């Protein structure tokens, strides 16, 4: 019994890590061919590729922990919204480029700190994936941070858009620091990270960048939660409908 | 006239011409047209594939396709840079694309309708592109030749991945086989058109070959492509949609049917099945991105100002 | 053999009728809640509802003709793009309201003439559905026509948008009058309509309305064909991914 | 004062007040607020359902949902018209909605996450709405009362359709049952909030009841709703997410747990889970539609000019 419960928490935790990466990678890949410059096309595709790679590792691992024969693909393409465990931030639509960069900055700053912590995970696979991914995520964080500053301190128009981007997404930040049962258990077992340990760091860094970008830190808003329990926004279902179409339409096929 | 003779001698000796070297105006113009067209093709070519990234059927296929699109953006960048060494700016080239003045490969005016089209593009379109590009690694203009070395290496990787997708589909369920054959049917002829009009209607070929901008004629390359591709189709149980395809022992290659050149010229004129859509997407991306480029410029100017003041 | 071939043509013909209605109904329903006035919300929902009703009749009939146990739902939700038989016009994205109205006007004007002709079909079901639907379609045609005139002869901005709408969609009109093997056979058997019989009428009416709207009849463009053979634009796949999600994700469920 | 007495006597006698009749300013204001809020709820209420029209799982369900949304647009129109008889324009009301000054039902600030939510909205939300609205068919203001007669007839139809969706899901596959129970869990408490704050915190109730704008208190209606809905849930094998629910023989109704009123007040303040999204969509629709409304006005003016000239 205890073992099953332990596995369930680890399974859930791996899904969270994998789904965050998968959903954000999917969102970024929607930008293909629609970017303001070829350089941006290249960098967003690159970030998406990193994230899909991370998702593959975490979801494959989740499938092994579950022990029901599901691999990363099965988990990615055959779960509906109630079984997705990503945070709400990553599933929010791209909006304009400022909103996309606000989302990326808020997420990658967090993910970088998370992966830094996870390099010390007692779960070898998590530690190894985090150690590899932390380099990728450092680059994502820097890229997003540069854009936040550039757009915030660019023209009047870009300043307003960048500020709007943060205002719009601010209510999804508290969920990143939610320590629910699964998160607490994982932290206590030395597998997961105690995200509250870097909450202040996070706030400090986000605040510093927003100020360097000549923007205003948004007022705190009522947190919107639910993603970790499968209660998402209305956007995820549409994302999955598109992403999962082929494997669902051709259940007998391999690709 | 001396300069021209010296230039032509260097080209004939297979030396590279570099940006600072003297070159005939027509050579420069031809190169700008060809390199920018090639760059535009990389950029527009991201669209038919971008249409399937969000629907790639496995995590691995999604990653491969993202990597491919990333490569294409990279190729676009090298090529724009190579063209810039000839004294044209990227903005100018992009405006020429959006106004319809500059061309891009006709092939990207066809829609990607099923996942098999991603395989077909890799296999046939990248395959044809390589056939066109391999000789360009020895083209006379140095920056272009060096860009092509990198491009070709990655393209042949893409071509193998595309063929592998097709192989997988052709060995798959009935629905997958049908998808694969249907994609081959739709992409075959447009791929043959990628080599350009028949030699007798290709007035610039001779000059371009003399300048080593081109090293084989359209018809030679097309024949080579057919000779390589027909057995590849056979090997995975697909059939090229041309009843005239037949091995010709005498010439040591395949005979094949006549390309519908009226279709080709219509597509060149901008009447391809999704030509309007492609240009609308590119223009929208460019216009929607104006505020971002302006902001980046404004920020860079402020930073430069600060550095100067400091 | 002959009988099977006959059925195949009828099956295909019914799919064309059904898919036109289904796909356009789906497109119109995307407008829900995004219309310029509540009255427009109401009228677009109403048109969508009529079209879904027509689709249901035609696709149910197609399933019966096929005789493989598929009903309208099975045909609507379990065919992929290569098996859809709608014309390309109806699958084109909504664009702005002017483009949506141009699409509706070009299609409903045609569909009205088609259904007028089909009331004389030797196939009783087709004749009955057409007789009922012709009233609905008359209303769609009038509504779209009114908007074309209102926007064309409204402000400078609306004039430009309305003209753009027609320019954009003009290349999909010739497909409406394609008489391929199936269409010819159906017309010869007295089941289908010979659309060429009303081509001139159509051109005259469309031209008259465009002129009344103070717009310019677009130059003829190279026709874009393929929908009737399952060779669609890139848009249909995305539409189906969304529309078919639930039945594909839950193949054992009924709703 | 005479007019006021006469007015109050007529209301007390259950006579209808009509637009041309004298009425107290506070009565007018209260009605405008209530009717426009009700109209806005119909319009905003189209959004959570609109989210599923394009994904309805069968042609029949799609048609039913389209018809429902069409009805809601119709209700919005009657109600805006009824409010307009009180001397306010539709534009004013819509601006008040978009600026956040006017409210709409808190319930529409929750997302529709699965198809079961469409069932839950019909069953619970329309069910609660009917409970609120049936007495309004006898409300003292004539145009409002007459609008409610039409609205109620259609709403009870919607309620039955919603319940039928839930019944179907609850009798379906495991995945469908889970969807149905999950939807009930999420929509139950917000539905109870639809009756407004508890009577002791509802300062306007007394006045509204005296004016026959309201005919039952919030708590009375809420109790009625629970009493009807709990057995409906039981009947299809679903469980209301409130362990305190228990039949109370003495009062002839169910006891139930305390609503989280802090949640309610937060949502009223505009902090509901998808409140920002709902308003953003409405505002965008209105702004994107400006050129269309302007064009319609310009055309109408031209036509009027022509008629005058003729």
UniProtKB/TrEMBL annotation, chains A, C:
Q: Which InterPro entries match?
A: Aromatic_CoA_ox/epox (IPR052703), Ferritin-like (IPR012347), Ferritin-like_SF (IPR009078), PaaA_PaaC (IPR007814), PaaC (IPR011882)
Tell me which NCBIfam families the record gives: PA_CoA_Oxy3
Its protein name is Phenylacetate-CoA oxygenase subunit PaaC
Q: List the coiled-coil residues.
A: none
Q: Which PANTHER family match?
A: 1,2-PHENYLACETYL-COA EPOXIDASE, SUBUNIT C, PHENYLACETIC ACID DEGRADATION PROTEIN PAA
Sorted alphabetically, the Gene Ontology cellular component annotations on this record are:
cytosol
Enumerate the Gene Ontology biological process terms. Answer: phenylacetate catabolic process
């Amino acid at each position: 019994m205890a073992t099953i419960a332990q596995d369930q928490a680890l399974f859930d935790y791996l899904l969270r890590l994998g789904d965050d990466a998968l959903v954000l990678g999917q969102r970024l890949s929607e930008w293909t061919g629609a970017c303001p410059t070829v350089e941006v096309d290249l960098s967003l595709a690159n970030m998406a590729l990193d994230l899909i790679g991370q998702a593959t590792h975490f979801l494959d691992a989740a499938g092994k922990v579950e022990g029901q024969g599901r691999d990363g693909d099965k988990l990615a393409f055959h779960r509906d919204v109630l079984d997705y465990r990503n945070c709400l931030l990553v599933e929010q639509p791209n909006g304009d480029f400022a909103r996309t960069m606000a989302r990326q900055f808020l997420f990658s700053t967090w993910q970088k700190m998370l992966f830094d912590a996870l390099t010390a995970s007692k779960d070898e696979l998590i530690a190894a994936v985090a150690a590899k991914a932390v380099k990728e995520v450092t680059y994502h964080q820097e890229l997003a941070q540069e854009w936040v500053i550039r757009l915030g301190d660019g023209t009047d128009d870009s300043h307003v858009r960048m500020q709007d981007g943060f205002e719009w997404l601010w209510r999804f930040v508290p969920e990143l620091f939610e320590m629910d049962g699964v998160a607490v258990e994982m932290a206590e077992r030395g597998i997961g990270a105690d995200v509250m340990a870097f909450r202040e760091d996070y706030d400090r860094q986000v605040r510093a960048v927003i100020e360097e970008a000549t923007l205003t830190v948004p007022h705190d808003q009522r947190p919107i939660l639910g993603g970790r329990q499968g209660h998402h926004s209305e956007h995820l279902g549409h994302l999955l409908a598109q992403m999962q179409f082929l494997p669902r339409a051709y259940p007998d096929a391999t690709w | 006239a001396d300069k021209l003779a010296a230039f032509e001698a260097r080209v004939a000796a297979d030396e590279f011409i570099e940006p600072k070297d003297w070159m005939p105006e027509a050579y420069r113009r031809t190169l700008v047209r060809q390199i920018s067209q090639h760059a535009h093709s990389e950029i527009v070519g991201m669209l038919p594939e971008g249409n399937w990234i969000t629907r790639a059927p496995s995590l691995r296929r999604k990653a491969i396709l993202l990597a491919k699109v990333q490569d294409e953006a990279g190729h676009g960048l090298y090529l724009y840079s190579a063209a810039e060494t000839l004294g044209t700016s990227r903005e100018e080239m992009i405006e020429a694309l959006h106004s319809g003045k500059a061309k891009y490969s006709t092939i990207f005016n066809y829609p990607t309708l099923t996942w098999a089209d991603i395989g077909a593009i890799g296999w046939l379109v990248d395959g044809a592109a390589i056939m066109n590009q391999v000789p360009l690694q020895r083209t006379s203009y140095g920056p272009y030749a060096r860009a092509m070395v990198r491009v070709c290496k990655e393209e042949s990787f893409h071509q193998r991945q595309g063929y592998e997708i097709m192989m997988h589909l052709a060995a798959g369920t009935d629905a997958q086989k049908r998808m694969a054959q249907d994609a081959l049917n739709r992409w075959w002829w447009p791929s043959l058109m990628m080599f350009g009009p028949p030699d007798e209607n290709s007035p610039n070929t001779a000059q371009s070959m003399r300048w080593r901008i081109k090293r084989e004629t359209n018809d030679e390359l097309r024949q080579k492509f057919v000779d390589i591709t027909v057995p590849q189709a056979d090997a995975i149980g697909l059939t090229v949609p041309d009843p005239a395809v037949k091995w010709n022992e005498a010439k040591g290659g395949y005979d094949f049917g006549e390309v519908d050149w009226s279709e080709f010229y219509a597509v060149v004129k901008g009447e391809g099945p999704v030509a309007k859509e492609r240009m609308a997407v590119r223009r929208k991306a460019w216009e929607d991105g104006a505020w971002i480029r302006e902001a980046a410029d404004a920020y860079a100017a402020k930073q430069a100002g600060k550095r100067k003041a400091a």
